[in-house]
Amino acid sequence: MSAWPELLRLPALFTVPGDSLAGAAATGAPPNSRTLLAIGSSLCLYEAGMVLNDWADREEDARERPHRPLPSGRVGPATALTAACALTGAALALAARAGRPALAVAAPLAATVWAYDLTLKHTPAGPAAMAAARALDLLLGAAATTGHTGAAFPSAALLGTHTLAVTAVSRRETTGGAPLAPLAALAATGVLTRLVTRPPARPPAGRRDAAARGLSGAGASAVRTALTAAYAATVARPYFHAALNPSPPLTQRAVTGGIRATIPLQAALTARSGAAPTGLLIAALTPLARRFAKKVSIT
After folding, report:
1. Residue 290 binned pLDDT confidence (cut-offs 50, 70, 90)
2. pLDDT score, position 56
3. Which terminus of the chain, N or C, has fewer Cβ atoms within 10 Å?
4. Which of 10, 32, 8, 28 is nearest to 102 (CA)?
5. Ramachandran quadrant class, 274 (left: phi over 0; alpha: psi -120 to 50; beta: rest)
6. How many other C-beta atoms are found inside a 10 Å radius of the C-beta of residue 96?
7. What PANTHER family does the entry give (predicted)?
8. Which DSSP string do the residues of 241-260 spell out, in sequence order?
9. For residues 23 and 139, is the Cβ–Cβ distance under 8 A?
């Protein structure tokens, strides 16, 4: 049983709930029971992707990472594939419970996850596919909460851009490579930091978190700025080090930093949409992710 937390990369799960919460915040509506269903669907699909990734890479991992659960024999390939199928089915069932709009987003999201792991990962389209999956996950939260996704597209695009940068760096985490990818990721971080710090041109209509109404404009802006600064601080340094020396250890640290930075970015996007208390709640997942990552690797 100790192999399953490693196979599922459980600490990375802390980067998932913020997708749905940021999507809900972008619509201007508070989270509801359907938002919780979207979070459950996202968690299942994320874990399905993790298991399927190792199943598809089991021969490569036998050469480069023989300690992983599948090549080491601690988990059988058939068991892993069955788990990926079951998790995907559970994700779609939860999305269906959240309503047809949620299922209409979850279905292409599941297809993107499977296409990435089975075919696209080792092609030039790999980073774009991963970015699309993360963007769709945010849209799933919006679709489940209100039935509409239009207002969430800007937040989805920003989160997808961050994921694109992290995935591009991750393609060299076992072999190392040129500094171009971490440099590009560092530049993308700077652009994202600037965009997220600025308030949206048109704040989302509808209801916001009741607690958010108690924050002054200056207070909400301070929360958004602090969360954005936390995002930049989490990822900028490891990207810079990987650019100076793109060795496997430093590249892997850059990937780890990029994954962890997803949480403060989700929090900043949520605060940017006017739901600062929810953003702070998302940010509270950061120390938990860091603590559990000491026991199980997230990459």
Report:
1. confident
2. 94
3. N
4. 32
5. left
6. 15
7. CHLOROPHYLL SYNTHASE (PTHR42723), CHLOROPHYLL SYNTHASE, CHLOROPLASTIC (PTHR42723:SF1)
8. HHHH---HHHHHHHHHHHHH
9. yes
